[in-house]
Design a protein that fits this description.
With about 350 residues, the protein is of the alpha/beta class. The chain is built from 8 helices and 13 strands.
């Protein structure tokens, strides 16, 4: 019996020794690593002492947020002409020394989105013919009423001119004009800009006043229109300047005291509205004298005339306005008698 007990004890000791040896070998083959210290941030020791149970700390990888970007509006250019009266159309005036020459130079200057002619486009059908022949039948052209256009035949044509079908991509007409001037006063949007076409001969009873003025009906309509737009740039067009200026090249002064300045109270109210609403420029013609001047925080751009050799008291002129995001610049091209157009002035409309 004693021998059996001794044998059992020996066997137990032998087994225990083998187990320790195996464990020691496994430790040498697979050394222990502090995995928690590599995958988790340091833990406050005091927090661990007071905690009743251990909750593993998880590291959360932030999910990137996607912020959509808005592509900027592409840059564009539009052309300004004025006062090409009677030097247009087929026949003897279908010649580069007249309005046709200005249109040809515009076509050669690079792509333009459209042209605005700020009045005295008589006869308008012939002026459109010249535009079609040089810039294409689908080229958008926006004529204004000038003092030489307020006669039955040209006014009938201008009232019936289909703005919505003007060009392959008609503008986004925002508002048509006040009563009795719906066809010749309107606004439209293009890219990041708002354009306002004014008939300054609009009155509460008709659209053919003998004097240009911003009467109550026209002012109220303009005020409401400008209050609605959220475009980056606003351009307002009218045939008569608010402040007639001398020509940049030869000092010619015309229609001083006979334009919107004939009625200073309504003129000043109009100009204050343009400033208040952040209008970039009021673009005009009538004087045949070219000027670009900033008055009371608003640019006045006078496009002179584009009739070529017919009128040489001042040089024939057209202007290109470039809109590129927040930047608005201009280039002014002028031509002497029997001369081609060259760029004479450029600058920033800030």
């Amino acid at each position: 019996m004693l021998k059996k007990i001794s044998l059992i004890i020996f066997s137990l000791l032998l087994v225990t020794g083998c187990t320790d040896t195996l464990f020691a070998e496994s430790q040498d083959a697979f050394p222990t690593q502090n995995i928690a210290s590599e995958t988790a941030p340091p833990v406050d020791e005091q927090l661990l002492k007071t905690a009743t149970m251990h909750i593993p700390i998880e590291t959360v990888t932030p999910v990137p947020t996607f912020t959509p970007t808005i592509d900027p509006e592409p840059p564009f250019t539009f052309a300004i002409t004025s006062d090409m009266t009677s030097r247009v159309g087929p026949g003897m005036f279908d010649d580069s020394v007249y309005f046709r020459g200005a249109c040809e130079a515009i076509a050669m200057s690079g792509p333009t989105a459209f042209m605005v002619s700020v009045g005295d486009v008589f006869p308008p059908a012939d002026t459109q013919w010249t535009v079609d022949q040089t810039l294409g039948e689908d080229y958008p052209w926006y004529p204004l009423v000038g003092n030489h256009d307020v006669y039955p035949e040209p006014m009938a044509w201008l009232r019936n001119y289909d703005i919505e079908q003007n060009g392959r991509q008609p503008p986004n007409i925002v508002n048509t004009g006040p009563p009795d001037c719906e066809e010749t006063t309107y606004s439209f949007d293009y890219s990041n800009a708002h354009f306002v076409i004014l008939n300054v001969y609009c009155d509460t009873h008709n659209d053919v006043r003998t004097d240009g003025a911003i009467v109550d009906a026209l002012y109220n309509w303009l005020e409401a229109d400008l209050a609605q737009t959220d475009k980056d740039h606003i351009f307002v067009f009218g045939h008569e300047p608010a402040f007639p200026q001398p020509d940049e090249d030869n000092g010619l002064v015309r229609h001083l005291g006979e334009s919107l300045d004939k009625y200073p109270i309504t003129r000043n109210r109009f100009w204050s509205l343009l400033k208040e609403r952040g209008v970039a420029a009021y673009i005009t013609g009538h004087t045949h004298a070219y000027s670009i001047v900033k008055i009371g925080g608003v640019w006045q751009v006078d496009a002179a005339h584009a009739m070529g050799n017919r009128e040489q008291s001042a040089l024939s002129t057209f202007i290109l306005i470039h809109v590129d995001g927040d930047i608005v610049t201009y280039e002014t091209f002028r031509a002497g008698r029997d001369e081609g157009y060259t760029m004479r002035y450029s600058g920033l409309l800030d």
